[in-house]
Structures are given as C-alpha cells and as structure tokens.
Write a structure and sequence with these properties.
The complex is a heterodimer of chains A (443) and B (904).
Chain A lengths: L17 H6 L4 H9 L2 H10 L12 H6 L12 E6 L8 H8 L1 H15 L3 E6 L4 H16 L15 E6 L9 H8 L23 E5 H5 L1 H7 L1 H5 L9 E7 L6 E6 L4 H8 L9 E5 L8 E2 L9 H6 L8 E6 L4 H15 L5 H19 L4 H13 L9 H5 L1 H9 L1 H7 L6 H9 L13
Parallel strand pairs in A: 1-2, 1-4, 2-3, 5-9
Antiparallel strand pairs in A: 5-6, 7-8, 7-9
Helix pairs in contact in A: 2-6, 2-10, 3-6, 5-7, 14-15, 15-16, 16-18
Chain B lengths: L1 E5 L2 E5 L5 H7 L23 E5 L8 E4 L10 E3 L3 H17 L14 H9 L22 E3 L9 H9 L6 E3 L6 E3 L14 H4 L5 E3 H4 L9 E6 L8 E7 L2 E7 L12 H5 L14 E2 L13 E2 L2 H14 L3 E4 L6 H11 L4 E2 L4 H15 L4 E2 L2 H5 L3 E5 L3 H4 L1 H10 L2 H9 L7 H8 L6 E5 L11 E4 L2 H15 L11 H16 L3 E6 L5 H16 L5 E5 L5 H6 L5 H9 L5 E5 L9 H9 L3 E6 L11 E4 L8 E4 L4 E5 L12 H9 L13 H11 L22 E2 L30 E2 L46 E2 L25 E6 L13 H4 L7 E4 H7 L6 E6 L2 E10 L6 E5 L12 E3 L2
Parallel strand pairs in B: 1-5, 15-16, 15-23, 17-22, 18-19, 18-21, 19-20, 21-22, 23-24, 24-25, 28-29, 31-35, 32-34
Antiparallel strand pairs in B: 1-2, 3-4, 3-5, 6-9, 7-8, 10-11, 11-12, 13-14, 13-25, 26-27, 27-30, 31-36, 32-35, 33-34
Amino acid sequence: MNKPLTEHIKPGAPPIDLAAYERTGGYEALRQALASMEPGGVTSMVEESKLRGRGGAGFSTGMKWSFVPMGDQAPRQKYFVCNADEMEPGTFKDRFLMEHNPHQLIEGMILGAYAIQAPTGYIFLRAEYHASQTALARAIEEAREAGFLGRNILGSGFDHDIHLHTSAGRYICGEETALLNALEGRRAIPRAKPPFPPVVGLWGKPTIVNNVETLYNIAPIIRHGADWFNQLGLTGESGTKLYGVSGRVNRPGLWELPLGTPLREIIEEHAGGMRDGYRFRGVIPGGASTDFLVEEHLDLAMDFASVQKAGSRLGTGTMIVLDDRTCPVGMVLNLERFFARESCGWCTPCRDGLPWVEKILDDVERGGGREDDLDLLAQQAKHLGPGRTFCAFAPGAVEPLQSALKYFEEDFRRHFNGNGCPYRSESAASGTRQVPPGNGHRI
Amino acid sequence: MATIHIDGKPYEADPEKNLLQTSLTLGFDLPYFCWHPALGSVGACRQCAVRQYRNEEDTQGQIVMACMVPAADGTRISIEDEEAREFRRSVIEWLMVNHPHDCAVCDEGGECHLQDMTVMTGHAYRRFRFRKRTFNNQYLGPFINHEMNRCIQCYRCVRYYKDYAGGRDLDAFASHNHVYFGRSEDGILENEFSGNLVEVCPTGVFTDKTLKTHYTRKWDLQSAPSVCAHCSLGCNTLVGTRYGGARRILNRYHYDINGYFLCDRGRYGYEFVNRPERIRHPLLHEGAHDTETYSKPETCSADVALKEARIRLRRANRIIGIGSPRASLESNYALRSLVGEDNFFNGLPAAESHLVTVALEILRHGPVRSASLREIEEADAVLVLGEDITQTAPRMALAVRQSVMRTPRETARKLGVPAWHDRAIRDVAQSDRGPLFIAAIDETRLDDVSTAAITRAPNDLARFGFAVARALHPEAPPVDGLSESDTTLARQVSDALANADHPVIITGTGLGNEALLQAAANVAWALLRCEKPAALAFVVPEANTFGAGMLDGRPLREAYDAVSSGDADTAIILENDLYQRTHDVDVDRFLGGLKSIIALDSLRNATTDRAHVVLPAGTFAESDGTFVNNETRAQRFFQALPPEGDIAESWRWLGRLAAGSAPSEEPAWKYLDTIIDAMVADYPELRGVRDAAPSADFRSNGARFPRSPRRFSGRTAIHAQFDVNEPSPPADHDSPLSFSMEGSTAVPPASLVSHYWSPGWNSVQALNKFQEEVGGANRGGPPGICLIQPEKNLHPFFTEIPATFRRSGEKFVVLGLPHIFGSDELSRHAPALAERIPHAYVTISDADARARGVSEGDQLVLRIFGREHKLPARIRPKLAPGILGIPMGFPGHAGLVFPVDGHL
C-alpha cells in the first residue's frame, strides 16, 4: 500500500499480464470510475491528491487536466498522450515500470482519458525501449480483448483506444510540445506556449501529455483516494517517488520511496554509500539537466520545494553521483556534448551556444583552457537561461554547468596553463578504471 | 489604442501588434531576424530581446522577446537595458560562430541585414576560437544561388517557401548546429515565387543568380521605381541598373498590390532588356516585302529614319495605327492621336478585345469593386472561376494562398492567439483552411489549399458560376440541366460566400470565354444584393491590357479588313508582334497588303522584320509611362536607365513623327507631363493618370530625388581608363528623379522610391522606414490611382447562360494553357527564365487518351487550320473529354487565338 508504483513488481520477472494484474486489484479503479464517477470527479480527485508531474517539471497533474475544455462546446476530438520518451541521462525509471507492469500505465491512461473525455490515446515511446515496446503492445492487445479499450468500455458508453508510437529518436521529443510535433510527423521542435496543449495540442486539439511515472499513480489514487495519497509523502508533498542513483556508489539502482526522503538516506542507505576509495563530491539530483548539489545538501529532503530552494530541481529524481576521482569538468563536458547534440536547432542560443560551451570544455580538458574561459562559460550559462531561449531545454542544459562553475571552480583552474585534465593523469597513474561495471535494479 | 512605456517614456501603440513591430514603427532600432511583417513571429532567433517589467514598481523585470509579446496597454519594456543589450550582442556572437565572414566576396555585402544587425548590436570582437562547421551548397536552378555556410538558421526561408508560398521542395534538414536549409537533393526550386528567398533571407545564403552574372553592389546600382511589365497585376518593382544594363529587379513595396513579394517572372524576366536581339538603332528595310529584292535591314540615324517614315506617311492613302497592351498608355495615346480615332486599333484579336470591353463595362457599371491583391489576401472566401491565376497572374495566386489562412487565424484569435503569432496559429490551424473554391479546366497549383476544385469545359465552368449566383439570389437566372453534384457544390460555394464578410470572385480572359466574366459578375452582384461587400478581380493578359482597352480602339480584325478592302496602305505598329496575336496567314496577308510599315519595338520579332522603318523603343527600364493594371489602377514607371543611343519611349518617337518634318518643329509631346495632360483632356476617364505620380516639377526641399544611392561610388570609375572626369549626369525633364546621387534625402512619395536605405539599414529591410507603420501602408499612401470607380446602381443580371459543352464528332476544342515561364512575350527572352520554359506539349483527357490508345509522351499530330502540330501528349486525369490544351504563346503556334477547333 505504501509503494503504489512498484508493489507488485519483481525485478527481472516478465511483465505482469492482464490476469495477474487484475488479481492484484488491477482495473478496479477504472471499473469504479466508469461506474460511479463523473469525468470531472476523476480530475478533482487527482487535483486533491496533489499529484505533481514526475517527468521533471512537477506541475500539478489534476490542474493540467482541468485546463482541458469540457462540455458541449468543447471539441469532440481530444487526445491523451503518455510521454514515454525517457531519454534523460541517468534516468531509467519509466522503463523499469513499463517493462514490468504495463497494465498500470494503461489503466492510468484510460482514467485520464475518461477525465478529459478523450477518445484517443498515444504512448510516445523511446525507440530504444524494445522490452517496453513488447510489453506495452501485448498489454494494449490484452486490454482491448478484455474490453478495457475500444468502444463502450465496460458498458459505460466511454470509448477510448491507445496507439503505441515509437519515437524516431531525439531527446527533445521528451519536451511535450516537441513530442506532439514528432507525433504529427513534423520536425521535433517545441511549440510556442501559450497556447498550451490542454487547449491546443495534438493536431490542434485539446491534449494532455503526462509522464509514465505520473500515470502509474492514477489508478492507485482513484482506488485509495486522495487522502491516502497525500499521507504517503514525508514533507507535505504527496505520494511516493522512484529515486535512482548511478555513479560510484555501492549499489546503484532504483527505489520507490516516500516523496521527501532525505538525500543522505537515498545515497547512503539505499545506494549503499560510496564505493571504497571514493569520496562524495556532489550529485546531479534529477537527471542531467539539474544543478549539482554538494555535501552541504546531503540532508535535504528530496521533494520539489526543498530541492528548488537549494538551487536545483528534483527533476526526474534519478541522480548521478560525482566522486572525488572523476573530473567535474569532464563530467560536465560529457553532459554538454549530449545537450549540444540533442538541441533541436530552433533557437540561436541553444543551437549555437551549447556547441560553443562543449568546445570550450573540451579545450579545457585538453589543456587549452584559459582564465577568461570561466567568464565566457558563466556568460554562456547566463544567456542560455530561462526566458532567453525558446524552450526549457537550454536552461536545463546549463544547470550542471553553472553549478559546476560555482562549486568546482578550483577544478577548472587546475586545468588551465596547458595542464589539461588533472584527473586523467591521476587515473592513468593509478591505473583505476574510469567506468565502473553496471549494476541491476534494486527496490 | 494602448499606451506602452519604452525606457520610461509613454507611446501610443496598437495592441493588436507585437512589441517588436511596435518598436520599429516608433523608430527604435531593435534588431531582429526571424520575424518578418508578412510572415509573423516565431521566436526562433532571440535577437529582439528586451527587458519587460510587470508594472511601475517592478525594477527586476525579465528578458523577453519583443516579437512574442503583444503591445498591450500598460506594457513596460526597456530596449536600452544593459543586460538586454548584452544578450542581443551575444545572439550576434552566436550567429557569427559559424558565419564565414566572407562579406567581401558575398553578393549580399552592403545590403545585408546580418551586417546591419551586427553593427546595430555592437558585437565586434571574435571570441570563438574553434573551427567553423561547413556545408555543401546546392544547385537550385537558374534563379537562386545557394551558399549555406552563411546561414544563420533564422528559418525565414522555409517559413516563406513552405508555409507562405506553398512550396514543397525546400526544407530544414538535420538538427542542432547542423540545421541545413535546402532541397532533399540538388535541383530547380519548383515554386513560382522562389525569387523572394533572395529578399527574405537576411544574409547571403539565397542570392539572385542573374545578378551574379553581372554583379554590382547595391551602392553602385542606379535604380528607379518601376511597374512589372509581365502580367496585368502591376506589381511594383525597383529596377537596378549600371553601365547601360539592367542588373536586377527587387520588390518595391505596394501595400495594396504586391506587398513584400514578386513572382519569378516579375523578378527574372528583366534580362530581355540586355539581350542582343534588342533594337538599339533605327532600321531601314527597303525590301522588307519584296522577296525578290530582299535586303538586310540597315541601321541609320534617327533623323534619317524619321525622314523616311514621314515620307512614307505623307505618301499614304490611309494610315492605320496598331496599338498594344504591352505599350504604355502614353504610347498608345500618342499613336491614337497621330493616326486619329478612326484609324486606331487596340492591337488585340477580336475575341480578346471584346472580352476586355465586357470586363471594363462590368467594372464601370458596377456596383462591384475591383479587388486589390491585399483585399484578396484578406478575403475570407474566394471563388476562382476559370482562370489559372498561378500562370496568368502569379502574384494573385500567392494572395489567394494567404486568404485561406484568414479563417484559421480567426479560430486562433478566439483561443487568444494574436494574428502575428505565426507559430501558434499554425499549431491551431493544422490543415484547416478557409473557403477557396476553384473551377478550372484542369488541376491548378492552388488546388492543394482549396476547399473544393472542379474541372469542367469552359462553358460548364461558366454555367457553374451562374448556378452559384442563382443559389445566392432568386433573381439571378436559373441554370437548366446542371448535374446534381454541381448543384450541390454550387450551393456549398454560395453558402460559403454568403457567410463570408469579404468574399472575392476571381476570373479572367484566359479561357477566351465571355460567359465566365458574366457569371463572375452575376455572383458578385448576387452577393451585393445580399448586402455582402463582394469584390471582383479580373485577370487580363498584359501589363496595359486595360489601358489599351480604355482608349476605345477597335480590334485587329478590323485593321486587317481595312487593308484587305483596300483603303489603308500604311500602318504604324506600336510594340506589337502581330504574329503573337493572330494567325500567321492573316498577319502575312495584312502586312503584305501594306505599302509602308513603321514599327516601334524593343526586341526584334517577326513583325519588325517586315517593317520598312523600325524605331527603337525603350523597354520599361528606359521609359517613363503609365500602365493600367487589372484593377484599373494607373501606375507610373520611370526610367532606370538613361536610354542609350537612339532608344526612346515610343510616345516620344511618335511625338517627333507627328511634329512634321521641319527641323525646328517641336515634337507634339515633348515631355511626359505634356502628353499626360493632352491624354487626360481627351479622356476624362483617365483623369487619375495625372495623379498616379508627382509631375516632373515636383521637388522636395527644392531638390529632386536621386536614382543613385547616397554611397554611389562607381560614377568616376565608369570610364576611368579613358578619362577620370565625371561625365555630367543625363538631364531628366520627365520626372522629379535625377540620374545622380545628389538630391533630397527625404522619404519620397511611394511612387518615387528608387531604393530602400536608411542610416544603419542597408538591406531591403530599410523598407521599415518607408511605411506608415511597419508592414502597413506606404508612407504617403500606396502609389497609383484606380481609374474606374463603380457606379452605385445595381446592374441587372446577365441572363445568357451558355449551353453545356458537347463535343461534336471527332473535333476537339483546343484551349491555350498559360505558362508563367514561356507565355509572356518579353520575359521569354530572359536567359535564366528561358531555362524554365517547358517543351511544348498537348494535354489530352484520360478518356480520350484511352479511346485513342495514347500513352504519356506519345507524339500526337494536332491539326489546326489545316496545319499539323507535332506535340508529345500529356495525359490529364481531370481534363474534360473533348478538350485539348497546348501552351500559349509558344513558338510554332504563337499566333493561335483560343479556343480553336482541332483534330487529332
């Protein structure tokens, strides 16, 4: 009951099929909602649950749904879209859910679609997620056969069907409006907002786009109520969260924990602390596009508000730990290389600023860095900030950079004067491997 | 109106506009790239950053893009804010990361928006120390040069080409800092409006390939305001010239006509001016007629030619004058005055002449107005009846393409999306388009945005039009025997037109069908009777067809009759190749029956080859004169080149001919204003011609307006190898323009604008400073005067409904198919444009092809008037059976008057 997302999941086991899902109460929430709740009632309950989007931005899910025009004047065609384009570096939470329990996503989507009265749903899935694709395709088929999808679901008069669409790839498709463009067969470029998708979305129609993890919460909320969900969190924010840790910790993995679990507990207890011979230097808390947190933040409650107050973002809640034997400049370079490559190319700062940042960092790593690169990088980070670019991609992309400049300035300086990366020579000297072996998921 | 605050000062603003457009209108130099007044805002380049404050107390504010924020009442922004300025510099710095800095060898150099904006933001020193990325360039056809390395990824090109002009073969490829703008593979850009990329592109990625062959910097181009000579719309152009040649055409903004864009015929047709087949000296051709004593024409002096011409005129029994729809109003009038009313013929075949008269009568006796292109663009329902406007009046097709966005824009407005927010409008609109109905003989290039497109034989198109009128109003005559589907569609069209606020009906003379004009008039009149402010747009074939028509000349047929009946023996033929207009057998007979032929023209042709005296007429580039466009708007064009040698406007030659032989005798019309005054006195209807542009004595602060830009540098270089003295500029007694760089620096009246330049604004976007508001009316009002204002009284409906088309036996009706590239007599001579002319062909319907076992590409033998034309077949699924089409005006069948009977 206190792990609504993962309680029935056995890591490594094949996906839970329809029968198994129904045995554990699956589709009960849907039956309940279709039989006894108005669409608006579903939205209100989700609003009352205070569920916030788990894709990274943390916007209130129920409020988002409430923006969809309802009633006779509203367009008949609406869409409910699941954003399963999980491409955030270091993030592997949605994949874990979809590969193991696809029906809970489908049930959440049908409930959401019912709430906004959308006859059509899409799952926009990252192309590389083959196991998820197989699991979802089969689950959709099962749900169709069982009458949970299709016309007149469970005799309610509500029609809904879900189409599985695998992305052609690109990180920006995770941005909900770029996702809609990609789904329409256009260039994956974010749209101007406003108008927001709940009013003008897929093919110009009202559309809700929700993250996978967000949607896994819907059925449990409908079944157990908003109050139950509210009390799951530790710090006043509702529900649980899938937290993940990668880096040189003893047990990299993924855990469903109450929202607001302290950072120290996640890293030291669940991830087993740092590996021998490595010291904690910092952590990017929510995927690659969030600011570093450092030692002073270890007692931070990992909820949306607290992390924001500390100057970063909870993001996806899947963190990458920086140790003392890894070069922060190299780490940021690695991330900025990714972001520079994944920029959609629509707006100038992102398209031309990020590759410049990447080149400077690369030069710094190779020993070409200069003192004034610090100002240049800081200036780039500032000018790639919120409001200056077309979407949130670039501001996110420079969050690790700007915080690295703040916390690890000395490391940058050590690269200058033709030195290049000091860590590279250290690791070469000591003969340690740069990349630790991978590890399985742990709950 | 709203009040906004910019850097602490209040300004009046239009809340329907965004802050960028507003700031520019107010005169602030706020840099921008991706925004374009005609294309709207998309927020891509991030160049127009300003700081916006929430209210008076807010001292923090935030950086916003001016193009994405409405100028709502109470808005407070700072353009001068240091951080905003720093960010704007930074945007240029980013754009310069990969820009090749090849200004010195770039055709855009000196008129480059990127250069201007770079200077404006103050970015000067390069901090990027790494390698630039490079691209391959593509072959894009004869019009456009492609140099992708210069690209700053503003996305204007694809937004213009795809979204605005409906092109399909230019796109953005790849992503991040490798975004590439081009075609999927090398090849000719297909869209008829591709040339505008040259002006839309803010730097040197897309440049004018014809200019490249005779390149001159903007600051060395002597330019004058002109009017396009290649169709009836009268788009305004700027003709750039140097060293006696025309170098390029740029768009000259006309708020009501062409706005920011021209078609490719208008932009690239100019090169005929520089051709070797130009007639530059008078020619005497004694043996023009006599195949026995055939001699080559000899060049002679103007005096000798005039003397010879006068002798021939004196000896004449009766002189007839043949005017021309491609000659100016003044030249036609001069001819008419010279030969007298009874001897003046308008130079049109009888059928066309009749259609022009019918169209003019419909406009005169109203009460329906003639639609300007802007009105078409803003129409919320359009019916195109019969005319293939993409081919006959291309810029109108571009306007129609915009009209279909009006309804979606309205939908977007209801969702709170402002009209300038192109990005969001396209997300809202998706594939929704407003009502556009096309009735044509075959598919057209506008069908992709049409609500419905039907193809029928011309008579059936007219019948459809009559049916629409009938569906609108019970007094309109009913159409018997219309098919059920056509009746239903006619009802749908009438509903759409009746529900519109600004419906426009478009038709033309292209199919040679009078009933089409009448049907279109009936629809417009029916709408007026339903209290809808309908407007009507007629398309006629040439730049001055309506002008020639308004001089009441009689058709060519009657001129031919006058010769065959024996009383006329001498003809003056004004800028008219009769072999392009009527059947060569008729022309041969006509010319053969004349004792003397005096021809005035600019290019050698079959008619001038048969003339005894040929006088070298100026082209539009060397002439002052007036054209009357398809809305009956009189517009003046001015000399961009001082005529070389003996070249002169036809009206000037005719004035000298009329003056008589004494050397001391003054020409009948010495100056443009003199002939206009005489013409207006004779034709009260042409009154407005005088006011179409300021007269020659107009001055601004006592000075003329210079044709050369202020930074004109080449004047002493022209003959530097001989003499470094500066030759004195040619005098100009006909216009308030000077052939020099000296003169008034004020913004001239729009009809006298020779180039767009303003301090800091060297590119075409200096146009901003020549508008009342950016994207709005020309300063001082758009040029030209509409000559015909409709009467207020309702006109009774036309009642003669043609019979439905039925083929008779084996006979086909052959129609002329207009081609944007190839059907226009003059532009055909332009080398770049000539590359785009297709080979002649014949279209045949699917059914006829099947019945005769014809496959695509088969050589068909088409017999017309007993002559065989061998043409490859193009099978058209939507063409009506019984109809064939062949390209209009192509060599081999140029003089055919369509429709005409033919046999396979």
